[in-house]
Design brief:
- By secondary structure, the chain is α/β, with parallel strands linked by helices.
- It contains nine helices and 13 strands.
- The strands form three sheets. The protein has a nine-stranded mixed sheet, sandwiched between helices. A two-stranded antiparallel sheet has the order 5-6.
- The protein starts with 12 loop residues before the first helix and ends in a 14-residue tail after the last strand.
- About 4% of the residues have low confidence.
């Protein structure tokens, strides 16, 4: 799958399109199916276009929050939406950010969908900062010109969560999932959800973001403001751009809320994670880095489990492959259903398969 997006020609459509979104409609006043909400305020996409997220009302005792993916950027050349292709989605009003165009866990007609009866909150992503940005950053491009990018990932994501907290009082179970860029941020937001709903059983799920075993990404974190405006948790004290990596958000949330169940899905040779590892300066294959990260997390967090499938596909919750992938004799959809139901699933790995973990990736 390809992650370098060609969106420049479509970006001007976003301003007019998002204007048709509803304001922050209460859940009791929503139509059946997907509703698009425009929170306004401090929310914004990277190029200054409006932000919107989506809600499907359903059972109030079971809520799925999904942090969408869509790449990342941390230089002027990468962040400029007029440079084609670009490694991130800078606009909310595109099919990529519309759950009506997605399959997998958002296919409401599939009888195997574990979430079809749940309330679902689809958190669109258009800021290039893995949902963790809190800065407007002015970058200098290769030609010397400047571009200002609104890394408003935290404000955008919290607009959706605050809507949820105001509209759903006391769910019994909340599944906080993320794909790709959303996977990176999902442990932090699972903790924020657990803090808001102390009575709930919260399960965190990350898809396609487990292979980033690199030195502290100081340039990214400083550009985005990753460690600004974090919750006031003792477990987050001392985290900084100079010393912390993405997986430290797992450790912080697990230390603060040990009741959360942490779960991860990856493919061993994820082609998109490979692209971003290259942009981060690593030429390593994904699998050895992924295995090392998973080993560390399992040793540090008692209720961490993972599912590693063969091949190079990138994330599954948004795609029909959700219903076809399997590893170690276990179907991914059945594993995720058990995760959503709060069951203590086992770790599953393609290492246990006769064909190994390369799958459709050529030697």
């Amino acid at each position: 799958m390809r992650m370098i997006f060609a969106v420049a020609a479509l970006a001007p459509l976003a301003i007019a399109g998002t204007a048709s979104a509803n304001p922050m409609t209460a859940i009791g006043d929503m139509d059946a199916g997907w509703n698009t909400l425009a929170p306004g305020g401090d929310t914004m996409c990277a190029m200054g276009t409006p932000y919107a997220f989506h809600v499907k009302p359903g059972a109030r005792d079971k809520v799925m929050v999904f942090l969408n993916g869509g790449g990342a950027c941390w230089t002027g050349q990468h962040c400029d939406a007029q440079v084609d292709p670009t490694p991130y989605v800078p606009v909310a009003d595109l099919p990529h950010n519309d759950p009506r165009t997605r399959k997998g866990a958002f296919d409401l007609e599939n009888p195997e969908n574990p979430f079809s009866e749940w309330t679902q909150v689809f958190v669109s992503y258009c800021t290039g900062d893995v949902h963790l940005g809190a800065h407007d950053m002015t970058y200098t491009k290769d030609d010397g010109s400047e571009i200002t990018v609104h890394h408003r990932g935290k404000a955008n994501t919290m607009s959706a969560l605050n809507w949820l907290f105001e509209n759903v009082d006391a769910p019994e179970r909340v599944f906080v999932g993320g794909g790709s860029a959303g996977a990176v941020a999902s442990p932090l937001y699972a903790g924020i959800v657990q803090e808001a709903y102390p009575q709930a059983e919260v399960v965190q799920y990350a898809g396609g973001g487990g292979g980033y075993r690199v030195n502290p990404t100081v340039a990214l974190s400083e550009a985005w403001g990753t460690f600004d405006d974090l919750p006031d948790w003792p477990s987050l004290e001392g985290m900084s751009a100079e010393t912390s990596v993405f997986d430290d958000f797992y450790l912080a949330s697990a230390a603060q809320f040990p009741q959360i169940k942490f779960r991860q899905f990856n493919t061993a040779y994820d082609t998109v994670q490979k692209q971003f590892l290259h942009l981060l300066g690593s030429d390593s294959e994904v699998y050895p880095l992924l295995k090392a990260n998973l080993t560390d997390l399992e040793s540090e967090i008692s209720n961490f489990r993972s599912f590693t499938a063969a091949g190079g596909f990138h994330t599954i919750l948004r795609f029909d492959e959700f219903y076809t992938f399997e590893a170690g004799g276990v179907r991914a959809v059945d594993w995720v259903r058990d995760v959503a139901d709060g069951k203590d699933v086992e770790t599953v790995s393609c290492d246990d398969d006769d064909g190994g973990c390369r799958g459709d990736i050529a030697e």
